[in-house]
Amino acid sequence: MFITVLTIAILSVASVVFLTIYFMPVLVAYIRGHKNILAISLMTLFLGWTLYGWIAALLWSLNCDIEEDKEDKSENNT
What we know:
Distance between the termini: 68 Å
Radius of gyration: 18 Å
C-alpha cells in the first residue's frame, strides 16, 4: 500500500513538472502580454511534442510583439 501511494505521489509531481515545462511558451506569452497568445498556445499544444515546435513557440513568445499598456496608449493620444 505504501509503495502505491508513493508511486502515485511521484507520478503526480512529475506530471505537474512536465506540463509546466511543456506549456512554458504559453506561460511566457501570457506573462508578457503577447498579441498572439492563442496562436502560440495552439502551436505549443499541437507541435510542442517536437523539439523544433517547442523551441519555435518559445522564441515566438519571447519576441517583442507585446501589447502596450492602456496607460501608455492614453498618454500618447493626449
